[in-house]
């Protein structure tokens, strides 16, 4: 699907948050004609227009942006990322276009970068060791830009800061925690000198270094430390001719009570930011001239100033500057500036705040507010354009996402939020914490209403409310499900109604991947289901659950054989065509029968009936863009103009890492029915959809971001003018003209002949269809060995689509198009590989060291566990694989996974363990496939 179509389906509208962990992340673009700032969040660069409160979002990175720098003209900004296939991008801040994208091959990307004052060169430090320093002439006309000069950093101390000399672009300074290195490329290659720093010579201890700069108009440089000191460097004064890199320490001055977290210059001033949150201005002798100590935003990460024409003589600038009396009695003036802090804030500070006595002016204006720890959860208000955001910072923000304003803030001291949810009536907001505590807040004021402390401190991973807001349930990290009910205290009608803890049940032996409330069939009473990685779907008895007896289980079903369920969606919305819906009860429509949608780690979407049969209705191929789906949500239909019906119905999904996307309804497995895009550079911890279906919100965990996406299901166009079956053929190995497709056609023809009898002299009649009884064998001939349970699922699916209720599916004729759809939707996305066979042997008792397994034990498992093979089936399989004369007793007493695959099954490429690589094509023809089986954990719940 074309990139422009993908961007139309999900278009990024707003980015909440700030990459606060990297130095120099904010750059002031204000120049008298515009009031704007540039900053980065996750893998996206943002140009924020302060006056108009709008964002321009610049996308081009796949990895987290870890470094950025801005030219003195404020026109060019460079962003760099770290990770696989890392790049640097030079942006034009006026046109918002990328001017140059430079691949940074090897070394894990960029750790730090800077741009020369003339904007011609970019200097970088690589992330991985051996660390390299490189100089890039980015304005070169070359198609592929390589560094002009590069050299290994021989110091064992990793360098993490790099700065150009603003007066001479040939000079660069870098520093790590214990070494400062001065570099020069004036002689056509990198030359350097690292001055010694000893406590003995300085007569005082020197803390670890934080940042280094050159001081404009001088030969001096400065370095900050974690102790709050600033070291002043100057050129060596010796009888010999000294080089530009030969520097020595002049003095050490204590500037901050905490560490120096930012170091820069403006005009003739040295500017420092401190761990205590102060910004101070020093003269070139490091004497404090002015200070801004009322910001209250946390440790200062960066300071960036408005640009003015007379910047070289800033003290003489009168317009748009603040003035006051400096410490030495002289007049102090500087441009307005912005400060970013470790608390993920960006504050606009007027220079007049230095001389003002107004506390509001002294604190500055908050421009951006994020969270300083991973964001773990988001929840959309059920009726209003509001979004709750929370995470490990302990802060819960309630945003108005149309105006992008923070309405309310709740702070939980020493608590880490992991899950949140609004109740459908918008009265309460439930909050779950990593230590198992659950709090109920007023949804409108965020005031605490109730708090529940569990007996065991297990992280609350999910919270779900029933449709009538009478219940809410929680899942925790230990596979337990808890239930809370809105009822009278102590079940006494005379007492007030409040939330009451009913009980907790350890329903799963592995992580809970789905927790959903639904309703009883054709009724309105709530039901509760949970799904776990233990492959079990558990339904709870809400009617008989009470405080005395706790949470009771009604029943449990195993919903998959090998695949691990990763997500659950329970909806009354119709996900399939009418002909694929389960047959309803008499007098009811198919649309009234709600369905369960399971996603699995095998990239399949399975729809099951929600009644007690749990019958699998349909299996379709899910999106394969970025790993298994970990959450699937139904997008509420958006009504068209003049009251038109909702169109563009779709599901939205996320994967554990990076990708979100849409799937057009009805579900049919068509690869063109889905799309995916890189939403975050790391994991996706949570997502939600606005109440009107217009927006998707995604949380990026460690990237500290929440992104707002506009949803347009209508742009997800499935029809490209071709027959739909061609879309399925496109994803078969080699496509329509490939050898495998020709093999499928040949086998389909042979299956028609076989259905008419192989030993006949009658004239053959190729009708283009095969009876359904031939489908399982045909699939086995093509390398997919469905289990009996999978065949049963296919049988019900075909019966529902083509047969009559209670009819005989064996007589249904399957055409080639239907077979291709079935094959693509049901076959495994990845073939069996070495690790799969070894894991199977280990699961049934192979020696963990040698991998050996007793032959009799192996075949005992095959005949007793899972879909057991009868004795005659084992004998038939051995004859098919090894010849008519081979008996079970003739096999070796001890068998390994490798020997089983190569010698018994005939897999020739067993050692090829490439991802997705199939182990073998040991299948012969259609008639040589005995029903495949496997050991399956069918132990009772």
TrEMBL record:
Pfam families: ANAPC4_WD40, WD40. Its main location: other. InterPro entries: Apc4-like_WD40_dom, EF-hand-dom_pair, Quinoprotein_ADH-like_sf, WD40/YVTN_repeat-like_dom_sf, WD40_repeat_dom_sf, WD40_rpt, WD_repeat_EMAP. Residues 387-466 form the Anaphase-promoting complex subunit 4-like WD40 domain. Keywords: Cell projection, Repeat, WD repeat. GO terms for cellular component: motile cilium. It is found in: Cell projection, Cilium. SMART domains: WD40 (SM00320). This is Cilia- and flagella-associated protein 251. It comes from Bodo saltans. The lineage of its organism: Eukaryota, Discoba, Euglenozoa, Kinetoplastea, Metakinetoplastina.
């Amino acid at each position: 699907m074309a990139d422009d179509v993908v961007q139309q389906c999900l278009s990024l509208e707003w980015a909440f948050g700030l990459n606060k962990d990297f130095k120099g992340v904010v750059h002031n673009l204000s120049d008298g004609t515009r009031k704007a700032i540039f900053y980065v969040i996750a893998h996206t660069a943002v140009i924020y227009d302060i006056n108009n409160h709008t964002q321009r979002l610049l996308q081009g990175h796949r990895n987290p942006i870890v470094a950025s720098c801005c030219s003195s003209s404020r026109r060019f900004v460079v962003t760099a990322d770290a990770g696989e296939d890392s790049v640097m991008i030079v942006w034009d801040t006026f046109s918002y276009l990328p001017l140059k994208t430079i691949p940074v091959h090897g070394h894990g990307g960029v750790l730090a970068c800077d741009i020369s004052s003339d904007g011609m060169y970019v200097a970088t430090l690589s992330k991985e060791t051996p660390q390299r320093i490189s100089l890039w002439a980015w304005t070169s006309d070359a198609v592929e830009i390589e560094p002009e000069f590069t050299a290994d950093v021989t110091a064992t101390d990793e360098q993490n800061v790099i700065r150009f000399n603003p007066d001479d672009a040939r000079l660069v300074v870098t520093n790590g925690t214990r070494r400062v290195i001065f570099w020069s490329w004036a002689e056509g290659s990198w030359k350097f000198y690292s001055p010694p720093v000893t406590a003995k010579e300085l007569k005082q201890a020197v803390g670890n270094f934080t940042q280094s700069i050159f001081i404009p108009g001088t030969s001096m440089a400065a370095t900050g430390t974690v102790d709050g000191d600033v070291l002043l460097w100057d050129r060596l004064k010796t009888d010999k001719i000294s080089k530009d890199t030969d520097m020595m320490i002049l003095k050490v001055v204590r500037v901050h009570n905490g560490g120096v977290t930012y170091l820069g210059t403006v005009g003739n001033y040295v500017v420092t930011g401190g761990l205590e949150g102060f910004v101070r201005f020093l003269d070139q002798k490091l004497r404090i001239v002015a200070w801004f100590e009322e910001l209250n935003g946390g440790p200062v990460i960066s300071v960036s100033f408005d640009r003015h024409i007379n910047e070289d003589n800033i003290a003489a600038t009168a317009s748009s500057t603040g003035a006051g009396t400096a410490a030495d009695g002289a007049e102090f003036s500087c441009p307005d500036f912005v400060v970013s802090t470790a608390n993920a804030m960006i504050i606009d500070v007027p220079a007049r705040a230095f001389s003002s006595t107004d506390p509001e002016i002294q604190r500055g204006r908050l421009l951006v507010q994020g969270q300083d720890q991973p964001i773990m959860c988001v929840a959309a208000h059920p009726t209003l354009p509001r979004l709750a955001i929370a995470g490990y910072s302990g802060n819960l923000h309630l945003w108005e996402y149309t105006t992008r304003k923070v309405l309310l803030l709740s702070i939980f001291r020493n608590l880490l939020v992991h899950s949140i949810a609004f109740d459908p009536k918008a009265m309460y907001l439930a909050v779950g914490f990593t230590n198992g505590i659950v709090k109920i807040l007023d949804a409108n004021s965020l005031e605490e209403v109730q708090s529940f402390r569990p007996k065991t401190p297990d992280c609350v991973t999910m919270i779900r409310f029933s449709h009538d807001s009478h219940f809410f349930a929680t899942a925790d990290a230990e596979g337990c499900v808890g239930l809370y009910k809105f009822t009278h205290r102590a079940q006494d009608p005379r007492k007030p109604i409040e939330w009451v803890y009913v009980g907790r049940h350890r329903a799963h032996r592995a992580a809970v991947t789905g927790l959903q409330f639904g309703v009883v069939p054709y009724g309105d009473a709530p039901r509760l289901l949970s799904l776990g990685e233990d492959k079990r779907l558990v339904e709870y008895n809400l009617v008989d659950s009470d405080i005395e007896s706790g949470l009771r289980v009604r029943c449990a079903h195993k919903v998959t054989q090998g695949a691990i369920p990763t997500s659950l969606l329970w909806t009354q919305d119709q996900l399939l065509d009418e002909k694929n819906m389960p047959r309803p009860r008499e007098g009811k429509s198919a649309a009234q029968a709600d369905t369960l949608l399971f996603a699995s780690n095998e990239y399949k979407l399975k729809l099951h009936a929600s009644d007690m049969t749990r019958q699998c209705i349909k299996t379709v191929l899910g999106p394969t863009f970025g790993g298994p789906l970990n959450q699937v949500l139904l997008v509420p239909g958006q009504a068209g103009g003049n009251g038109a019906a909702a169109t563009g119905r779709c599901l939205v999904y996320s994967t554990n890492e990076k990708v979100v996307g849409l799937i057009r309804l009805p579900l049919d497995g068509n690869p063109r029915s889905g799309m995916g895009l890189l939403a975050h550079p790391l994991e996706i911890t949570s997502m939600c959809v606005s109440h009107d279906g217009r927006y998707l919100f995604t949380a990026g965990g460690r990237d500290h971001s929440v992104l707002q996406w506009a949803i347009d299901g209508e742009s997800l166009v499935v029809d490209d003018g071709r027959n739909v079956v061609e879309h399925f053929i496109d994803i078969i190995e080699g496509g329509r003209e490939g050898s495998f497709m020709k093999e499928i056609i040949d086998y389909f023809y042979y299956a028609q002949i076989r259905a008419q009898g192989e030993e006949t002299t009658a004239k053959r009649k190729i009708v283009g269809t095969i009876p359904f009884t031939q489908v399982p064998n045909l699939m086995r001939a093509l390398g997919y060995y469905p289990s009996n349970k999978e065949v049963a699922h296919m049988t019900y699916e075909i019966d529902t689509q083509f047969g009559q209720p209670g009819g005989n599916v064996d007589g249904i004729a399957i055409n080639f198009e239907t077979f291709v759809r079935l094959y693509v939707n049901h076959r495994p996305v990845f073939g069996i590989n070495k690790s799969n066979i070894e894991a199977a042997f280990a699961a049934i008792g192979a020696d963990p060291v040698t991998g050996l397994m007793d032959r009799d034990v192996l075949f005992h498992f095959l005949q007793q566990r899972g879909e057991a093979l009868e004795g005659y089936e084992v004998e038939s399989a051995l004859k098919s694989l090894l010849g008519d004369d081979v008996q079970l007793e003739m096999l070796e007493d001890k068998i390994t996974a490798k020997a089983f695959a190569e010698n018994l099954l005939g897999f020739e490429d067993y050692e090829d363990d490439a991802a997705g690589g199939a182990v073998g094509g040991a299948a012969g023809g259609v008639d040589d496939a005995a029903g495949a089986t496997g050991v399956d954990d069918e132990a009772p719940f």
